[in-house]
Design goal:
The complex is a heterodimer.
Chain A (H helix, E strand, L loop, with lengths): L3 E3 L2 H23 L3 H4 L2 H22 L4 E3 L6 H37 L5 H22 L12
Antiparallel strand pairs in A: 1-2
Helix pairs in contact in A: 1-3, 4-5
Chain B lengths: L3 H12 L8 H13 L5 H8 L8 H18 L1 H7 L8 H12 L3 H36 L2 H16 L6 H15 L2 E2 L5 E2 L13 H17 L16 H12 L2 H15 L5 H16 L11 H25 L5 H12 L6 H6 L1 H30 L6 H20 L3 H18 L4 H24 L11 H26 L7
Antiparallel strand pairs in B: 1-2
Helix pairs in contact in B: 1-17, 2-3, 2-4, 2-17, 3-4, 3-15, 4-14, 4-15, 4-17, 5-6, 5-7, 6-7, 6-14, 7-11, 7-12, 7-14, 7-17, 8-9, 8-13, 8-20, 8-21, 9-20, 10-18, 10-19, 10-20, 12-13, 12-14, 13-14, 18-19
Classes of the chains: A mainly alpha, B mainly alpha.
InterPro entries (chain B): DUF112_TM
Organism (chain B): Vreelandella subterranea
Protein name (chain B): Putative tricarboxylic transport membrane protein
């Protein structure tokens, strides 16, 4: 069942898009205000700002500016830790190496999602993590940072 | 249109010796694996195996590379259907309905539909190439940057306005995507929006961004589910259902033909290719359908439209490569390198002097599609087992593949960080009803749109009204307006007309 909730996130996302557009336009003008440089960026930015104003105007008129229907099956408090774990994984790649960071990420994810069959958890994390890291390290022409396996 | 003497010589090139065929099966398997692995591109597979073609003669080398191309075109649809991760940008639209089909437990059917559409699409594309290679090459030359810009804007607007109720949010996502697509150096050497980061000088890496927005953000959403398909009975891999998918695909011949025609002509436009053709075909099919709201919810016509268009694009881009020596995308750029390695220059002279070789390549591709059907059938049951994997194992595994693949594309940490940033952006977009596909397509086409507009400006000597003097551009712009406001205008017209009741 969908529930109407008070939500500032929607407005924040809209403001972030407007903020990005304004920042990017100003940055492009700072680099050069020549027609060639702004040929697409200027009209496109204006269109984005007009659309944003229209969206806010329409929703104010309808009285739905801070109202959102909750999406089915997605609980924010259960999704945010996953996003955080993924961020930690990506940001630790350079420190822990692709091999160890991957093994730890998979193991942590499995624990977070309730896997308690420890031999399976350890076995899968090690086999998949090391296997994929090794495969990519061998396939790619660039060096991959590894802690244990050859890079 | 067809030079029959050259056809005979082409067939002789293929069948007097068995050696050209030895490389076809390995080529298709390589293409399938690379296409089906998120982050490993078809062009990457071709580039990795390009040095091997040094030991082959030219026909054999082309057969090997086109086999990778053919296998990859279908392969990229597999993760799009099973995991909502288009293996390449040419399978974006496949995910729109393929993935909802998989979530409804119709993954076998969806894969069957995709395989048959790919096979028939490739076949149709090469038949058109056989008949049309010369007139097509002349037509492509007539498309200028103004037309390319109009096509991009049209495609973009169509995608952005797909979500009926949230058109404004869709358009906004698409246009912000276009702006992001212009980050970095422009054609005049001016760097915008890089925040002083040298990594961004070449722009935001689009494929990692696409992986983040499409795949990672969707996986975040699914993190609380046990399986992709909740019902245990629906998770079975059944060959009979794959064959049902075959029949289902064949029951939409017009969708397939329309996709094929869009694919071959858009695929022939350099730089646009299959990334745009699958989307145009999808949108056009949805627009013409009696029940457009069923698209995006598991309508098999969406898969047929996308797969038939991206497969025929292969033939379209081959037309430009062979006839003009211009690569339509990454994969044909690698083929151009193979041309150079064998001291061959593509273009009108190549077609005139080596017509037999051109026909040999075309005929070999006819055979390749049947091999793809057999090899694809063998591979599908293996790959379809993915939906039996619990989400707690699947999600981190796919995220890892996306991170590694993105590292493979950029060669540094820019790829993984881009995946992370755009995963969060995509997740927020999904959460608040902004169109993720529109934003991705915008990013994909931003630089191309700016380049086309700049070239039009330069050609016109600074007078952009020149664009309005070109009839093809005007037609495309008119189509854009119709697709945006057509329904509304029609509604207004119907309301303003007094209703006539029979007496």
């Amino acid at each position: 069942m969908s529930v109407n909730k008070r939500d500032y996130g929607d407005l924040l996302v809209l403001m972030a898009l407007v903020g990005f557009t304004l920042w990017y336009l100003l940055d492009a003008i700072r680099v050069s205000s020549s027609v060639q440089n702004l040929l697409l960026i200027l009209p496109l930015s204006i269109v984005v700002l007009v659309i944003a104003a229209l969206e806010v105007g329409l929703r104010l008129k309808r009285g739905t500016l801070l109202i959102r229907e909750e999406s089915e099956g997605e609980a924010l408090h259960r999704t945010l830790p996953v996003v955080g774990l993924f961020a930690a994984y990506v940001l630790s790649l350079e420190t822990l190496g692709f091999d160890v960071a991957t093994v730890l990420f998979i193991a942590a994810f499995l624990v977070m999602k309730g896997e308690r069959h420890w031999p399976l958890l350890g076995g899968y994390s090690l086999a998949f993590g090391f296997g994929v890291a090794f495969f990519f390290a061998q396939m790619l022409p660039y060096p991959m940072h590894m802690l244990i396996l050859p890079g | 249109m067809i030079d029959f003497v050259a056809v005979e010589q082409g067939l002789a090139l293929l069948f007097t010796n068995f050696s050209p065929w030895l490389v076809v099966v390995p080529g298709i398997v390589i293409g399938l694996i690379f296409g089906a692995t998120p982050g490993l591109q078809i062009s990457m597979a071709m580039a990795i195996f390009l040095p091997m073609t040094l030991y082959m003669d030219f026909v054999q080398a082309m057969l090997f590379l086109t086999a990778i191309f053919t296998g990859g075109s279908f392969g990229s649809g597999i993760p799009a259907i099973l995991m909502n991760i288009p293996g390449t940008s040419s399978a974006i639209a496949t995910a729109f309905d393929g993935y909802p089909m998989a979530r409804q437990g119709r993954h076998n059917q969806a894969l069957g539909v995709a395989l048959v559409s790919s096979v028939i699409g490739t076949l149709m594309g090469y038949v058109i190439l056989l008949v049309m290679i010369q007139p097509l090459s002349l037509m492509v030359l007539k498309l200028g940057p103004a037309e390319m810009f109009a096509v991009i804007l049209w495609g973009m607007t169509l995608i952005a306005s797909l979500k009926g109720e949230q058109v404004l949010k869709g358009l906004m996502a698409g246009f912000v995507g276009l702006l992001i697509g212009t980050i970095g150096f422009n054609e005049l050497g001016m760097a915008r929006g890089t925040m002083g980061q040298t990594y961004l000088l070449d722009g935001v890496p689009v494929i990692p961004a696409m992986m983040g927005m499409f795949a990672a953000s969707e996986l975040f959403k699914l993190a609380n589910k046990e399986f992709i398909v909740e019902s245990k009975a629906s998770r079975k891999v059944k060959l009979s259902e794959i064959f049902q998918g075959f029949k289902l695909a064949l029951s939409y011949p017009w969708v397939m033909i329309r996709g094929g025609l869009i694919g071959v002509f858009v695929g022939a436009v350099p730089g646009v290719g299959s990334s745009v053709s699958n989307l145009l075909s999808y949108v056009e099919t949805q627009r013409r359908d009696k029940d457009p709201d069923s698209f995006g919810k598991g309508n098999p016509k969406g898969v047929v439209a996308s797969e038939s268009a991206n497969s025929t694009s292969e033939a379209g881009s081959m037309a430009t490569l062979l006839a003009l020596g211009i690569p339509g995308g990454g994969a044909t750029a690698v083929m151009l390198a193979a041309f150079a390695m064998h001291n061959i220059t593509g273009g009108p002279q190549f077609i005139r002097q080596q017509t037999d070789v051109v026909y040999a390549i075309i005929f070999a591709n006819f055979a390749q599609v049947f091999l793809l059907l057999i090899i694809g059938l063998l591979f599908i049951p293996l790959l379809a087992n993915i939906i039996k994997v619990p989400m707690r194992y699947l999600i981190p595994s796919v995220l890892v593949l996306a991170v590694m693949g993105s590292f493979g594309l950029t060669g540094n940490m820019t790829g993984p960080v881009t995946v992370l940033v755009f995963a969060v952006v995509g997740w927020l977009f999904r959460h608040y009803g902004y169109s993720v596909p529109a934003a991705v397509i915008g990013m994909l086409l931003g630089a191309m749109a700016e380049k086309s507009l700049l070239h039009s400006y330069q050609i016109s000597g600074g007078d952009l009204s020149y664009m309005l003097e070109r009839p093809v551009t005007l037609i495309i712009l008119a189509l854009l307006l119709v697709s945006l406001f057509g329904k509304r205008l029609l509604g207004l017209y119907k309301r303003s007309k007094p209703s006539v009741t029979p007496e």
